User: What shape does this take?
Amino acid sequence: MPSWTGEMLPRSYDLSVMVAEFRKEMEDHLDGCADDDTRAWLMSEFHVDEGSANTIINYFREQKAVGRI
Assistant: This one.
């Protein structure tokens, strides 16, 4: 994920919107689906392997646990 300093974003507005939409979809999946279903969704929709899907799920679960999403 790109980062930024100050007012200048090194990514486009459209990319930022897509990241926000993905974060919302992930939150919805984590709240309403079993991890197996979320894993299958990530693998199907974003063409990631099982290990990557697990990493994404764990990252979001950890962030949610500390109140960051």
